[in-house]
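Could someone model adenosine-5'-triphosphate with this protein?
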Amino acid sequence: MKFQSIRGFKDWLPEEFLKYEYLIGIAKKILKNYNYQEVKIPILEKTELFIRSIGEVTDIVQKETYTFQDRNQEFLTLRPEATAGICRMIIENSLYMKPKPLKLFTVGPMFRHERPQKGRLREFYQIDVEFFGNLTPWYEAEVIKMSINILYSPLKILAKEVKNDNLFTLEINSLGCERCRPEYKGYLLSSLKERDKVLCNTCRQRLERNPFRILDCKDPNCKNEIQKLEPINRFWCSNCKGHFQELLELLDFLGLKYVFNPYLVRGLDYYTRTIFEIKGKGLGAQDTVCAGGRYDKLLEELGGPSLPAIGFAIGVERWELCISSYLSPQIFLDDLSPQVFLALLGKKQFKEGLKLAETLREANFKVEVLYEEKSLKALLREADKLASKKVLILGENEIKEGKILLKDMLRGTQEKISLENLIPKLKEELVH
Ligand code: ATP
Ligand code: MG
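Reply:
Sure, complex below.
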């Protein structure tokens, strides 16, 4: 029997993993420049945490979670997102006592039992960012700007010549607050109930459970009905309106382009006021690379103090899909090949070779060595396959003379040098 990975779960082969590490590295650098701190939270949590935070009647909790009972009959869930776990961590460790704002992020896999397709997996990675504190539009603007900065950062670093400033589109909306949101919900319910016959089955159920999600439906009939609705901004209270206007002014000031989308909603129940999505070009139906918003009530609902918050999550696979054509394979070449290939001519040289390879690695060179009896020609072929920059040839004569042959694979040149000069010479010729 041949084993296969589970549907929607993928392997990261070396080339792909390098890209992942590269992207995460860049993202972390930016997050740290904004003074965010990295944390790690468990992949498994009690099921109840997600029911309480994401909402019992959301698609995620009802259809998508990997939930099971462990050997103690306790209900556990593989995290479908990280915000709930971070909030639990903050409450459990009283992190809310620390000076604010509290700025945290985590990177890791999330699990949702969805239909796998391009940009949609069952195990996927997120960069999850959370801000807790006194949330004025200044902070919101900074968080949104930072998310855009992260998404564009590989292009800025790698492909300076690529002037693509519309690869990502920011859509923004406000869901209102506890004062004005109920009014809009009431309006949605009454106007959609009149016409519930034309809605799709899912939306008819949503009408009972979470009418806001209808605004997000992709069914053409539902879309048509949505277009006839009054947009949410007509219902905002003066505070929400002022807050949103201030935020947009700051985004303008920062030179950020955005699209106000009054029909934008999110799949999790906990959002309040500002929400946003960043869409990537060329991704097809699964085009949201980054999504986030404010969740002022969540910490309190989970048993913590009242503390406003805003956060977002970047889907790493979708981000990678979006920018992979700009990532030149050249930059990963160094990671995939050794700097030095040590060719040992005959078994007698193995001990010297073992010692030399250790010395070179200690001096921080990436070294490959084969302990196999092969001809020089065969060894050079191996070095070539691995795209090693240099080859060191060690035979009986060289050992006697205290020397080594250094071959440059790109230039095709070769010289005999003394062993004492080897490390300085390699340092001179190899950037590491
Ligand atoms: P979508 O509408 O695409 O299902 P969502 O609203 O469920 O997204 P969030 O829970 O806000 O997504 O997650 C934030 C980001 O995580 C998404 O914008 C996306 O980039 C990524 N993401 C979510 N679900 C998946 C998945 N199943 N596979 C790959 N990436 C995903
Ligand atoms: Mg989803």
